[in-house]
Amino acid sequence: MKEPKQYEITGLGLSGTQYTVEQTGTDKNFRPEYEARDVTGDTIFRCTYNMYEEKDELPFVDADGDELFTVKASETWDIAGDYLLTDSQTGEDIVVLDNDFSLFQDTWRIRDAEDESLIAEINSRGALFTVGRKILPVGQWIGHRFKVTDPEGNSVGTIESGFAVFDQYEITIRDRSSVPVDPVLAGAVVIDAIQEN
Fold it and tell me: What is the pTM of this model?
């Protein structure tokens, strides 16, 4: 397996272990907008979910509006499928995010874009919370809690949100040596955008 640093996105330069990803609202076309920040409050990237295009696409830009990377669905309206993360500065495909759609558990895998080896997994908490979020009238306001695990299944971090109209996730990666942070942050946006919209 490649080292986590080999999955870093050019231009991000992340070195911390705690980050915030927030849905900040919608643009004039009602497309969800997101922002990621470090512990000092500095913007790492912004993103608008283009769900009205031929294929779902999420272009991620820095604070100056320069494109850092993109995540594109392999199929049109791909609720459960593959999403390819490509570094915009190098043109290199870095990872694939894939999801097996389930009413009871959200399981996302981060895989190597070339050999499809497992890099990390993001799993939602128990079935009652997952079902509640999907079927209750105010279910979308129930907080998320995901566990991040390494390829061996060891817990290395969490992605958590509280009760809110717009989701705000606190992301903690305790072991940067076994899981790359960049794709996990991107994954938090993709999971929220795809499953909430």
Answer: 0.85
